[in-house]
Every structure is written in C-alpha cells, then in structure tokens.
Write a structure and sequence with these properties.
Blueprint lengths: L3 H6 L21 H10 L3 H24 L14 H8 L10 E8 L3 E8 L3 E8 L2 E8 L3 E7 L2 E6 L4 E6 L4 H17 L14 H7 L3 E5 L4 E3 L7 E7 L1 E7 L4 E8 L3 E2 L1 H6 L6 E4 L4 E7 H10 L2 H19 L1
Antiparallel strand pairs: 1-2, 1-7, 2-3, 3-4, 5-6, 6-7, 8-15, 9-14, 10-13, 10-15, 11-12, 11-14
Helix pairs in contact: 3-9
Length: 323
C-alpha cells in the first residue's frame, strides 16, 4: 500500500512514487469517493479505518524489527508554546500570550480532563482524549468567574448564562491573574472579537467516552507487564510512564511517555502478549483506557463511533511512522 498516510492526514504528499518496472498495475481510491461512500454506509468507516490502523501497526512493527535501535530515556512533559496555543483555538493571526496554564477537569456528566488557559483576552479550555476534541473559548469581557473554593470555580458565559464548573488543585493564582486582566481590559477598552466554541454537545462521542476508565497510578506502579495480554488503548492525561522491555541480557528502558501520549495501540489491534512493561513514572499519573470489548460492543449500537475511533488510531499510528 502507498499513500495511506497522506490519505489519513490530508495535505500535500511528502514523497514521490514511481513505477519500478513496466506494466505496474495499481488500484487507487480518492478521498472524496471514500468519504461519500461512508455517508451512504455508516458501518463502513469502522471496517475501513480498522483495516488502515492494522496496516500501519504492522508497518510500525516491521520498522522496529528492522532498525531495533536503543532509545535514550528521558522525560516528556506537557509543553505548549504560544504558537501552538493559537493554532489550538484558531488565533493564528493574533498575538496571544499564555498567562496561566492549569490542568483541570471540566465537571460534566463525567469529568473531562484538560487544560484551562488564561490569555490577555480569553479563557480557553482544551481537551483531547482518545480522539475526542473539546475546545471552549470565552472572551474575558463575556465571562464571570466565581471561586467556590481553592479547588473549584464556576465560569459563567454572561451572554448565554451557561455555567461551567472546573476542578483543579489550586485556582488562587488563576483568579488573581484573571482579576488583573479584567482591570487592564476595562482601562484599555480592549475586546476580543472571536466566538465561543463549545463542542460539549457531541452526544455520540460522549457515549464512547462513557466506556472509558480513568485510573490514578503512583510512581513505579505497573500498568501492565511484558507478555501480558491486554486489549486496551491507554492515554496519559497527567504525568508520565516508563516503557521497558526484558531482554536476555537485562531489562532496559525503551522510552518515557508524557501527557497526551498513547500506548497499547499495537496490542489493541494485533492481540497477543505485550512486548513491553509499562509503569507510572511519578505519583498522581492519570490514565484513560478503553477496551476492545467495549469498542466491539459499541459497534452494534452505533456503527459510526468505532469508525471515528479507528480513524483516530490510524492518524496516531501514521504520525508515529513519520517520526
């Protein structure tokens, strides 16, 4: 197969492909044709993207076996630049500086973990969990924050009177910075001309997230062992994990993974015993997981949801292949 990564990610093709011999026959499908077919057949996306995900997983495994190079261990921390922040929320052409970045949970039907940002003119919430993207943008001039206690706030969007509750470790610094920005905006007359982007009504994806499990791990606590069969995909919400494998010589650390990163996709797709051991690297490591059994059961209830999930896995594996 060729072109599947560009198909998944979109954009321009990153390589040139030429026929190596005469009379090479190639089947091809356009992205527009596949998208049209998926609309006509809601059950197709699950099968199609599952096939692509398995294809990419096999290719990753082959790549590992060919190169089999040792990776240095190191910590991967959540770091966001002003440029990345602007791209997350569509402020591409605006100068936006992050004043506060807090790890919080949005308290809805179930807690949704993400980051609450305070810039000069906006309050923004960003969460991406197992393919579910939630972005919320509140202009400071249209927002009111009430401190319930140091670990909980209520944010009111004054134009709609919608209320949102966030929980975190300590909001005192956030509240202080927010009050300063309110005063500066009042004095300067500055305003934000964007719109609130609230994706919380994505009901179908909420059904999927209800089948996820959130668990907290302490440092050195094992999440799963090498040779253990586990058909789950995991995503780190906060903290980091250490990936190691046992060899004939001795156990060795392969790498560390940090906030937002996935693991377990290969075992989820291919089955069989895990090739590595993964344990929490620090206390308070929060990890979401979803089992293959749940994804399979969900397919019978809503054929579109597994398709979205496997598309997410395909994109994740494609991104890993590019690195």
């Amino acid at each position: 197969f060729i072109g599947e990564i560009s198909f998944i990610e979109g954009g321009t093709i990153s390589a040139t492909v030429v026929a190596h011999t005469d009379e090479v026959a190639v089947y091809q499908m356009s992205r527009s044709f596949v998208e049209k077919l998926m609309i006509e057949n809601p059950g197709l996306p699950g099968r199609f993207f599952k096939f692509l995900a398995l294809l990419l997983a096999d290719r990753l495994q082959t790549k590992k076996e060919i190169h089999d190079e040792k990776r240095k261990s190191g910590s991967t921390q959540y770091i966001i630049t002003d440029k990345a922040f602007r791209s997350y929320f569509g402020f591409i052409d605006q100068e936006m500086i992050i004043l506060i970045d807090l790890f919080v949970s949005l308290d809805d039907k179930f807690p949704i973990y993400g980051h609450l940002f305070l810039s000069q003119t906006t309050i923004c919430f960003y969460s991406k969990i197992l393919g579910s993207l939630k972005r919320m943008v509140f202009p400071i001039t249209e927002s009111k924050i009430e401190l319930i206690d140091n670990t909980k706030i209520k944010l009111i969007h004054t134009l709609t009177n919608n209320e949102f509750y966030f929980s975190g470790e300590n909001f005192s610094e956030f509240i202080t910075a927010y009050q300063c920005q309110i005063n500066e905006i009042d004095e300067s007359g500055a305003n934000f001309d964007g719109e609130m982007d609230d994706l919380r009504d994505d009901i179908d994806w909420s059904l999927f997230l209800q089948g996820t499990e959130l668990k907290e791990y302490n440092a050195n606590e094992v999440i799963f062992q090498q040779n253990q069969e586990i058909r789950k995909v995991f995503q780190i919400v906060q903290g980091s994990v250490e990936v190691s494998e046992s060899t004939i010589e001795s156990p060795r650390i392969v790498k560390t993974l940090g906030t937002g990163e996935l693991f377990g996709e290969m075992d989820f797709l291919q089955g069989g015993p895990s090739k590595v051991t993964i344990k929490a690297f620090q206390n308070g490591t929060l990890i979401y997981s979803v089992s293959k059994d749940f994804v399979d059961q969900l397919a019978a209830q809503n054929a579109q949801l597994p398709g979205r999930f496997y598309k997410f896995l395909s994109a994740s594996l494609a991104n890993r292949l590019r690195k």
